[in-house]
Amino acid sequence: MSRSRLSHAIESGVIALPETGRIALFNPRADSDLSALPGDRCHVIQRHYPDHAALQAQGFDCAVAPSGPYAAAIVTLPRARAEADALIAEAEAAVGNGTVVIDGAKTDGVEAVLKAVRARAPLTANLSKAHGKCFAFEAGGHFTDWRNAAPAPNRDGFLTLPGTFSADGIDPASALLADHLPDDLKGRVADLGAGWGYLSRRLLDRPGITTLDLVEADHAALECARANLDDPRARFHWADARDWQPEARLDVVVTNPPFHTGRAADPSLGRAFLDAAARMLAPTGRLFVVANRQLPYEDTLAARFSRVEQIAADNRFKVLFAQRPARKPR
């Protein structure tokens, strides 16, 4: 692992952290270089399950919400600006009058964030390195209006929070998938990568479904799904869909799998969802998946299922159906 901008800022003395007291780390990634930090004083606040689990395995004390007091806070910027603003406000509120450090890449919008922060609070440090910036300010109620409120209705009436996938409205790929699901779905069903619950809401219109497991890595999105679904058949799992195991084999899996890691396209992520679905399904189980038209998921499905076909498409997305999973890839 190469030396990070944050580690360089701390070790060079540009960023001065307090010698005592807990340090809140908001949104660090699993592969973050945190070697310059006093690990025994760090409290990680990470709401993305794979990163949370990986950092916990590295020995960090991890949670999904702050529990101060903290002497300082470090925010690793996410991609979404509204989510970044909310994290900065949350960090400032958690440290009282302590130091808040912001670390981010240019591709994550750090230049715009720096400009907005500097307009409200004097900077105590500012380092440019490795196509990004690391800067700091002293907390003092500068950003209270940036804090997230409760989930609010989007344009389609679903409760969402900034930073969740497709927070502004129904994702068109999910809508295409929902519109082409058969009416006869029944039994044990799972929605892998359930987000804030749109596909699950559509699934629960089918009385033959006995249980519906929503599996989602984004803790905020899953909490929104809880608010959007009032049905005793729905069960909520904060987990990595690639590793999650149902209590019994499933009759149906639906998924709109992610295919990006950060900003980079990563089709292997979607393929891992399809492999996981094959492991979860009963011998006659059915899988329904939506994907961008150019993604080559048919080969993955053909290696894992006896029957594969495309059942719908538009100019951007395709809906694929697979049935009868093989326990081992062919």
From TrEMBL:
It holds the Pfam family MTS. One of its GO terms (molecular function) is N-methyltransferase activity. Keywords: Cytoplasm, Methyltransferase, rRNA processing, S-adenosyl-L-methionine, Transferase. The keyword Disulfide bond does not apply. One of its GO terms (biological process) is methylation. The keyword Signal does not apply. Residues 158-320 form the Methyltransferase small domain. This is 16S rRNA (Guanine1207-N2)-methyltransferase. It comes from Roseivivax lentus.
